[in-house]
Amino acid sequence: MLEVADLETCYGNIQALFGMTLSCAEGEMTTLLGRNGMGKTTTVSSIIGLLASRAGEIRFDDRPINGWPAYKVAQLGIGLVPEGRQIFPNLSVRENLVATAANYSASDDPWTLERVLEFFPRLQERLGNQGRQLSGGEQQMLAIARALMLNPRLLILDEATEGLAPLIRQEIWRRLEQLKQSGLTILLIDKNIDEFSHIADRHYIVEKGRVVWQGDSDQLTADAELKARYLGI
Q1: With b meaning 16 or more CB within 10 Å and e meaning fewer, what string describes 144-163?
Q2: Is the pTM of this model over 0.85?
Q3: Which residues are 2's β-sheet partners?
Q4: Residue ranges of the domains in the chain?
Q5: Which one of 23, 115, 167, 197 is separated from 14 by 20 to 30 angstroms, measured CA to CA?
Q6: Over the stretch 154-187, which tens digit does the pLDDT of each residue have?
Q7: Residue 55 and residue 49: Cα distance in Å, rounded?
Q8: 151: Cβ contacts below 8 Å, ≥ 6 apart
Q9: What 8-state DSSP symbol labels residue 94?
Q10: What is the pLDDT of residues 34-59, one digit of tens each?
Q11: 2-230: CATH homologous superfamily?
Q12: Dist CA 197 CA 190 (whole Å)
């Protein structure tokens, strides 16, 4: 579904990606792993059109999307749950959810307000609250629900459970597992390997703007030296 090949991206004169290459197969969960500052968020920003790439290719459904503005990328069916959640703090939960709702993929069973509230019952209880009145876990649920309201075919999550309490992390992982089981393709950035290794299909480890390892969960969890070298575990 998504193919990134030999991607190079810069911040001004500073190059951040050096030939980044990865792919996401339809219906699978793929992860981008690595220490902070290694290029994971830059990769995501390049995919969704927030950063222009200098070289390489990004293809979605075999269509090149390099240089497309972010809103057109979203209309293709790519939804983002950004690092830091970035919900609208002065809008209510309901307003956050309906503000960008669409069914660009023409799904026969689209995500609606009622459906996302059933998926995240806690948001139903907070429907009239402003975004800034929510806990960190509730804000993360809202960020995921907002992305689902776009009815994406590919869901990208940048630091899906960072800073959340263990019980809330478990809730998020359960929901992501359900989304994967429903057939949604997921690209995930997160540090909690033990939490998602049983549901992820493929992993890429990023070091200094390039992929230095790729493999499945069995290979990753069995290699303690690999994790210590690149992930600091």
Answers
A1: bbbbbbbbbbbbbbbbbbbe
A2: yes
A3: 24, 60
A4: 2-230
A5: 23
A6: 999 999 888 888 899 999 999 999 999 999 999 9
A7: 14
A8: 77, 102, 103, 104, 105, 107, 110, 111
A9: H
A10: 999 999 999 999 999 999 999 999 99
A11: P-loop containing nucleotide triphosphate hydrolases (3.40.50.300)
A12: 11
